[in-house]
């Protein structure tokens, strides 16, 4: 007697069949060809869609959350093939009930590089527009978002992230403060110090931003499927003010409880803020920024990330030399 999923093994599209714990029962020959992994090496292991290191953690969590509620999941994702090359594909995961048991059927469809590039560019423009709306009235916001995006992407690559995923992170990073849409302009741009009540209100931009991006992601998914960058943006918005020692907000998360994406963007965001002119401060010299980051390593920032950023300091300085918004003479020994 055959298995209920045998007909799916004949499909031309790559297919994964997993049990209720998301352990692989079988993959078809098309999946072996596309991924480079053999069925016998995958059987019994966690399916790629459920592995935090298979897809980004926010994506794998979204997939499992939906299918375990009995709902399907569809989106565009990126993972590594057996040879280390990146594979961009459309993923559909569907719960299947057979013989009194729950199974999950995942079908992958390759994306042509041109189409993938077009999708990426469309999301990039959309994210930037939304981010700019969140901080309307601040003329410095666009160059700030551009620098944070480039620095976040570079830091992710220096940490060993695959290029495509680092690009998603750079795109997602511009939405880190999207929750400021809900903060009154007179408080957001107040020239003097905030009152304790105003500070508490401003701090809600993290949870407000995450809630906004959750709704946005769910609505976009109905049309286009889920998007890794948008899922990443949600966790960044929620967690970019968390500190690795637990002293941040909104939840007081510690260390690796904070998503890696948020730890990267937090470091990039503060680095850019220190280099930049603000109504309440002049730009810091490079030596001052380095000293500050070392002081905050292990307290506010991930120490490994600080170390990697400082190891690539010449590239950081080059980024700021290329930015006309940064006054001449700021980069240097100060």
TrEMBL record:
Range of residues in the leader sequence: none
PAS domain residues are 11-49
- Please name the Pfam families in this protein's record: HD_5, PAS
Give residue ranges for domain HD-GYP.
119-325
Q: Fetch the NCBIfam families from UniProt.
A: sensory_box
Q: What is this protein called?
A: Uncharacterized protein
